[in-house]
Amino acid sequence: QVQLVESGGGLVQAGGSLRLSCAAPRSIFSFYVMGWYRQAPGKQRELVAHFGNGGSTNYVDSVKGRFTISRDNTKNTMYLQMNSLKPEDTAVYYCNAHAVQGLSNLNYWGQGTQVTVSS
Fold first, then answer.
1. Taking residues 21-37, what's their average pLDDT?
2. What does the DSSP assignment read for the chain?
């Protein structure tokens, strides 16, 4: 069973920073598209940031300029640096690995880590 292991969530005041980490098996990390999602209470899960083709990065508009997605290929670990946090960033954050094989969409998820931003 594939495991994506997240860490780094917590409680922070508005304006503060947190860094999330996601460790994945090398076989996943090297060949799947890696990204971060979040789900706030009563809302649908949304894509926050992910890696695109050629190592490009993409962000949802609400976090542009505040969040940075990065990766360390030597450690098979992905990060999400979150700065200038706002109360509306409060959510459970999930690490995701995605690939398309033929007609199948393959998705692996981390266990989720709670991020709470107080005003």
1. 95
2. ---BEEE--EEEETT--EEEEEE--HHHHTTSEEEEEEE-TTS--EEEEEE-GGG-EEE-GGGTTTEEEEEETTTTEEEEEE-S--GGG-EEEEEEEEEEETTEEEEEEB--EEEEEE-
Residue 110 clears pLDDT 80, i.e. is over it: yes
| CB 96 within 8 Å of CB 37 | yes
Encoded tokens for 22: 């996601």
The string of pLDDT tens digits covering residues 44-77 is 999 999 998 788 999 999 999 999 999 999 999 9
Q: Token pair for residue 27?
A: 């076989």
As given in the structure block, the two tokens for residue 33 are 């598209």
CB 19 within 8 A of CB 31: no
